[in-house]
Write a structure and sequence with these properties.
7-stranded mixed beta sheet; 11 strands; single chain; about 425 residues; Rossmann fold; Nonspecific Lipid-transfer Protein, Chain A
Length: about 425
């Protein structure tokens, strides 16, 4: 026991915030006064603390073996300082890559993908509504101006996507993984497109269906409960967006995903692929147990690969990358906004989850999401994970001799149309109302 206490004291002393540990016996180790208190109900998780295996320590918190007091921002400052190795710079062996691909193939059948989406997105609409913006946009915001709040930054993101795609009235637009309908409705109401969304979440499908009816958009907008691999439209789409979705595809299915996007897109059309990527080129998942934590408690079946591998799959699928933008810092700020909103409403979150799941599952979910949101914010800040928007085109083969020879798509010669000086992002003074 003396050796254990000595080890803990050595690990806690240099941390950037004052952390104390309460052992099962009641004995306390660490600094006082404290910013963060960790109460251990068993000795087993202490090994994870000593080794800097913060994902395993987080799992012990979710399972009730460890309780914490203090701000989650301070907890994340301490967690990052506990790491003993860079969680993304390790090189994976050829064998681990083969095993990861084999696992990926097994994880991403039609049936398992539907189950995995249900596990996350159908937890509770009311819970997500507590900490998302009024439009329930569950993906990286775009802080076009630094003084934007979350709701404004999410509207700026929706418009940023529509501008990149150059949406025009009457175009057929597909949103793969439409979530709670934010982009789908923004594109229809601000750009006049004929919009179709698909999702595997029954809760989201029901919510967006009611929202479409409440807005009187049934003639221009639809949402289908459908896997992207099963979609068979009457004709290809002019423009496609896939936002926060390819993380669920899996590395083994990325070629099929790219091929599906290519087939769903008309020649010359544009697609915007927006998603989280790995910070390291070779790591299979974020280390120190963090990847395992997210797979177990938040996104079962979720897989991250480096942006270079996503672009490779898109190119092999017949899609030309015409613009790529890194929004990693924007996602760090987005996640902190979500985390702060959840932390400000913990009693209400606990009540909702207890009523809509059961007491034990609700308590575990709340503990998991508190660590997940703050932990991912930290991960994006430190570059362990990244967020890219990749604009791709399906070349139409028409080289021509016009003013833009060789373009072969709707993409112009430069990016001026995305960031044109003096053009303001449309904003709405009335947030999206919930369905009645």
């Amino acid at each position: 026991m003396k050796h254990l206490i000595h080890t803990l004291e050595g690990r806690l002393a240099p941390l950037p915030v004052a952390v104390a540990v309460e052992l099962p016996s009641g004995q306390r180790v660490g600094r006082s006064p404290t910013d963060v208190m960790l109460r251990f109900r068993s000795l087993a998780p202490l090994a994870a603390l000593a080794a800097g295996h913060i994902g395993t320590l987080g799992a012990a918190v979710v399972e009730g073996q460890v309780e914490f007091e203090g701000r989650v921002r301070d907890i994340m400052r301490a967690a990052s300082a506990l790491l003993q190795a860079d969680p993304v710079r390790g090189t994976s062996s050829w064998w681990s890559q083969i095993m990861a691909r084999t696992r990926s193939m097994a994880l991403h059948t039609l049936a398992r993908d539907a189950e995995q989406i249900e596990f996350h997105y159908d937890l509770s609409d009311d819970f997500y509504a507590l900490w998302l913006d009024p439009r329930r946009v569950y993906s990286c915001a775009y802080y076009r101006a630094l003084d934007m709040n979350l709701a404004q930054a999410q509207e700026a993101k929706l418009d940023h996507i529509c501008r990149k795609l150059q949406l025009r009235p009457g175009e057929r637009f597909l949103d793969i993984g439409a979530g709670w309908g934010g982009l789908l409705l923004w594109a229809a109401e601000h750009y006049g497109v004929q919009a179709q969304g698909i999702t595997l979440s029954r809760n989201q499908h029901a919510y967006v269906t009611q929202l479409i009816a409440a807005r009187g958009l049934q003639d221009r907008v639809r949402i289908d409960l459908c896997d992207y691999r099963q979609l068979q439209p009457e004709a290809p789409f002019d423009k496609i967006a896939s936002v926060g979705m390819f993380e669920h595809v899996g590395q083994a299915q990325l070629p099929a995903y790219a091929a599906a996007v290519q087939q769903l897109l008309r020649p010359g059309g544009l697609a915007l692929i927006h998603g989280i990527t790995a910070g390291g080129v070779d790591n299979v998942e974020v280390g120190a147990g963090m990847g395992e934590f997210i797979s177990r408690y938040i996104f079962p079946g979720g897989e991250l690969v480096h942006v270079s591998r996503v672009l490779q799959a898109l190119a092999q699928g017949g899609l030309e990358m015409v613009d790529t933008e890194n929004l990693r810092p924007h996602y760090a700020r987005t996640l902190w906004a979500w985390s702060d909103a959840l932390e400000a409403q913990l009693p209400e979150a606990q009540r909702i989850l207890a009523e809509q799941t059961d007491d034990e599952r609700g308590a575990r979910a709340l503990r998991a999401y508190r660590l997940y949101l703050a932990g991912c914010a930290m991960g994006f800040e430190r570059g362990w994970i990244a967020l890219y928007q990749m604009l791709v085109a399906r070349p139409d083969g028409q080289v021509g001799n016009g003013p833009l020879p060789g373009v072969q798509s709707d993409y112009p010669f430069n990016r001026e149309y995305m960031y044109r000086k003096g053009t303001a992002c449309p904003t709405s003074s009335n947030p999206a109302p919930p369905p009645t």
